[in-house]
UniProtKB/TrEMBL annotation:
Domain ArsA/GET3 Anion-transporting ATPase-like: 8-277
Cited InterPro entries: ArsA/GET3_ATPase-like, ATPase_ArsA/GET3, P-loop_NTPase
GO cellular component: GET complex
NCBIfam families cross-referenced by the UniProt entry: GET3_arsA_TRC40
Annotated CDD domains: ArsA
UniProt-recorded name of the protein: ArsA/GET3 Anion-transporting ATPase-like domain-containing protein
Gene Ontology terms, MF aspect: ATP binding; ATP hydrolysis activity
Organism whose genome encodes this protein: Prasinoderma singulare
Source taxon at top rank: Eukaryota
Signal peptide: none
GO terms under biological process: tail-anchored membrane protein insertion into ER membrane
Length: 362
């Protein structure tokens, strides 16, 4: 991950709360410490990158991460900006929706005919994932355009699974939809006046809206291509050792593979640390304390036994989940499985992220 030359993109995704933000931030710290100019970006509408880095990185521009000399920058993109950009297609004056839009591209007469495209729904209520896709497109534009071309490691902290999966299939869906509108518009522009009159289509309106649509289409195509770039992109699945998370991660892996997205590793986070008294040890000690009539020790050991039983049950659950992950994602899926321990402190700030990252990212 660190050694590969050239610009690389990493997306960390998975179920809610499994540690995507902590893992993304720690991976970015690791890259930066290895000398890569690194940008970590949150495209999750519910940001927590600032919390993870213990620093405000909102504001729409890469912010240098404090507390390290390494070349590390972070950025939280406001999904509202992307939504606003999408809404401008729906209506110039804010809210009349698809009819206005169709009028503005000179296709007012076709609004009904194009109903099956669900363009209205698309523009009035942007589908989940569209804001995230737009945010990613913006970052790609930043780093490809020269403004931030110094970055050679870009890590995306993504929204929980469902959102990410919808985002993956979005570009193709939008490509088809927008493509139809643009083609229809071109057909009408090229048609004779009589035909235009017959349909009541007004082609005198400027093609600005069509250009904007084409721009949107192009942006999403960039994202779509990047997602599937075998050399530049890697999607890292973040997971916790529960059967539910293991199953969801297996489905995520299948969907990613189905979409042609390069996925090579899964990180199982929040593994219970070893140590502590076993149930047998606690039971034996408790029996001895009872025999001796030591009531205080008996009380304490009852607590120890309760904790030991809890941990033993949890560990058994964890083992079951781990074997699913090892089988389904490791052996059958061909992914490398990395493990990260559950720590007794919250992982916040660069030193904590650095410590966390050292154990995860080998
Ligand atoms: N290995 C760990 N040890 C201790 N705490 C952890 C560990 N991994 C994550 N956490 C803590 O768990 C919480 C959730 O982690 P994080 O925010 O990284 O998850 P997420 O997958 O990004 O969540 P969301 O789906 O809400 O974006 C945070 O408080 C984080 O500090
Ligand atoms: Mg998060």
């Amino acid at each position: 991950m660190c050694a590969a030359p050239g610009r690389r993109y990493f997306m960390v995704g998975g179920k809610g709360g499994v540690g995507k933000t902590s893992l993304s931030a720690s991976l970015a710290v690791r890259f930066a410490n290895a000398g890569h100019a690194t940008l970590v970006v949150s495209t999750d509408p519910a940001h927590s990158l600032s919390d993870s880095l213990a620093q405000d990185v909102t504001g729409g521009q890469p912010v240098r991460v404090e507390g390290t000399d390494a070349p590390l920058f972070a950025l939280e993109l406001d999904p509202e900006d992307a939504k606003a950009e999408i809404r401008q297609f729906a209506s110039a004056d804010g809210g009349k929706g698809v009819n206005d839009f169709m009028d503005s591209v000179g296709l007012g007469a076709f609004t009904q005919q194009l109903a099956d495209l669900k363009l209205g729904e698309l523009l009035d209520t942007p589908p989940p994932g569209l804001d995230e896709a737009m945010a990613i497109a913006k970052v790609v534009q930043f780093v490809d355009g020269g403004e931030f071309s110094q970055f050679d490691r870009i890590v995306f902290d993504t929204a929980p699974t469902g959102h990410t999966l919808r985002m993956l299939s979005l570009p193709d869906f939008l490509d088809a939809t927008i493509g139809k509108v643009v083609r229809l518009r071109q057909t009408i522009s090229g048609a004779g006046n009589a035909i235009k009159g017959m349909f009541g289509a007004d082609t005198s309106t400027p093609d600005e809206a069509v250009e904007k649509l084409e721009g949107l289409k192009k942006k999403l195509k960039t994202v779509s291509e990047l997602f599937r770039d075998q050399d530049k992109m890697e999607f890292v699945i973040a997971c916790i050792p529960t059967v539910m998370a293991a199953n969801e991660s297996a489905r995520l892996m299948e969907s990613l593979k189905g979409e042609g997205v390069p996925v090579r590793r899964v990180v199982v986070n929040q593994l219970l640390p070893g140590g502590g008294a076993s149930t047998t040890e606690a039971e034996e000690a408790l029996a001895e304390a009872k025999e001796r009539g030591d009531e205080k020790l008996e009380r304490v050991l009852k607590g120890v036994l309760k904790d030991a039983k809890f941990m033993a049950t949890k560990r058994k659950d964890q083992e079951r989940a781990l074997s699913i992950i090892d089988d389904e994602l490791g052996s059958k899926g061909g992914l490398s499985v990395a493990r990260a321990q559950l720590f007794d402190i919250e992982i916040r700030g660069v030193p904590a992220l650095q410590f966390f990252g050292m154990s995860v990212w080998q």
